[in-house]
Structures are given as C-alpha cells and as structure tokens.
Amino acid sequence: MTLAKTVVIDAHGDADQMKLVDRDIGDPSPGEIRIRHTAIGLNFIDVYQRSGLYQLELPHALGMEGAGVIEAVGQGVTHLKEGDRATYASMPPGSYSGARVMPASQVCPIPEGVSDEQAAAVMLKGMTTHYLFRRTAPLSAGDTILFHAAAGGVGLIACQWARSEGITLIGTAGTDEKCQLALDHGASHMINYRTDDFAARVRELTGGNGVVAVMDGVGKDTFEGSLQCLAPLGMLMSFGNASGPVPPFEIGRLGALGSLKITRPTLFTHTSDHATCQQMAAEVFDKVAKGEIKLQINQRYALDDIAQAHKDLEARQTTGATIITP
C-alpha cells in the first residue's frame, strides 16, 4: 500500500470544503507514472473546480500542477524513468498531494538549470502564455496587445514574454503597486482599473487605433471594456473567469465593432497531443533558461494551509506565482 496525503472535496463550495486525507494511490498502470511531489502550483482553475464553476465528478482530488521525482513507471512509458525530475499541468486534478499516480503523456522532464519550484511555478502559467502568444493569434514584433491582471501569475510571465519578442503589452491591475510590478517585468504601459477607465486609456495609448488582441483571464468584469479596446479584426482571447463567467452576448455586435474575433481557449486542448505538450514545455523552459522569464514566487503555503491559499488567491492578495509544499 502506498499512502499519500491528498486534498479532496466531497461537494463544491468555498475554500473550507477542502479536506486533507490519506489515500492509497497504488502503482502505475500501463501509460501511467507515480510522482512524489516536491512543489505544487496554485492556479485559478483550482478555484473554479472547487467552487463548481467547472464541475467535477465528486468526490475528487484537486490541483492541476506539480513537480517532483518519478517513483515508478508503467508499461509503455518511454520519455520518463524512475528517478527523473518531472513536472506537469494536466488533467485529471490531483496535484494537491504528497504523491499521485497519473497519465504520463503530459508529464514533462525538468531540464538541468530549472528547479522543482520553478517548474511548478511555470508549467500551467507558462504554457498558458505560450498558447496565447504563439498558438491562438498570429502575433509578431511590433504588435500591441492588452493583458488584464498583468501582475498575476500568468500576467508577470506574459509581460516578460512580450518584452522578449518585441510585443508592446498594455496591462491592467488593481493597485499602483501591482502596476509597478508589471512594469518592472516588461509591461510597456500599465492602467490601474480602479482609478482609470481602461478602455478609454487604451484608445489614448494607441492613438485611437486599439489593440490587435486582448488577453483576458478576468471574465465578467472586463468583457465589455475589452471589446471596446480592440482594433478592427482584433481578437479577444477570453481564457479565464476570475471575476465570474462572461454572460451571454449578441454575436452580431462583433461585426458592428469591426469584425472582431473571440475565442475561449483552454490549455488542455493545446496540450492534449503528447508531442505538442512536450514541445511547448521545452520552449517555455528555454525562455526560463535564457533568463527571458524570471519567475516571481511571492507566496508559499504548506499543504495543510491550502484553504488559506485559496482564500488569498480569490481575494487577489497574491502576486506572481504561489507554491504549495507537500
């Protein structure tokens, strides 16, 4: 019997629904691995799954991102071996644990020069940034984009990614301190959405032209303003719901506003193919190794304190990445 402490929920709800239990995780079947976690990532998708915005079949373990050491490898797994350092940001949830058994396809080796904490801090957020910049719209040097919550976990990586590729990033955040943090990480301009009308300010910064893309992980609170920021033929990438889900809207408005495009991408569509997932991870780690992405791990919590970590994330009391230690 292989026991591991694991955070599970029996019902959707607030942060106090989570409980820590000992589970028998067993041995990997063909196509699976067992990983002993050394660092665990915290992300808004964990909140969505816990609250029920994204429904899980209950009871269910939580957590989408982790890093650690491979303890056992099932038949047919060739890209990992026992003793390898590895990381992932993939389905099914279950990273809030000391160890787990999971499908191997989207588990990636950690290269030399990248720590376990760095890997756990960058996988989900870095690969999200990757698909936004490289796989969702044809962005190139000289383009101007708007990124909401630019001082958050994905945001600080996006600021650096934009700077490394010659893309002008206009960001939003809720305090002057967060605005400065994003500027320090590569944002070209920052807007405090609590004191400024971000749509009007974007138009001002772009000479009335608007931006070619808006990357919006906030959702309900920013949706309408985001549409107003786009240049004709621009794309709104609605990739998260930190303020709640976007309400229904009349699709004809996209034509009236300039033949706009809108997409609701998810990381797991982009990483569902094994080879693509491994390539994306390698490209993210390459940026880390080159120093183009410097990871800001600003909060650490013990697994026992996972409820407080969720509460702080939901209250927007966190910046950069958060690590959970098993």
Can you tell me about this structure?
By secondary structure, the chain is of the alpha/beta class. 30% of the residues lie in helices and 28% in strands. It has ten helices and 16 strands. The strands form three sheets. Strands 3, 5, 6, 7, 8, 15 and 16 form a seven-stranded mixed β-sheet that branches. The protein has a six-stranded parallel β-sheet with strand order 11-10-9-12-13-14, sandwiched between helices. The chain has a three-stranded antiparallel β-sheet with strand order 2-1-4, with no helix packed on it. Helix 6 (223-229) links the parallel strand 12 and strand 13. Helix 2 packs across helix 3 and helix 5 runs parallel beside helix 6 (223-229). The longest helix has 21 residues, at 116-136. The mean pLDDT is 96.
Which tags fit this structure?
single chain; 326 residues; alpha/beta; seven-stranded mixed sheet; six-stranded parallel sheet; 10 helices; 16 strands; 28% strand
Give me a quick take on this structure:
Helix content is 30%, strand content 28%. The longest helix has 21 residues.
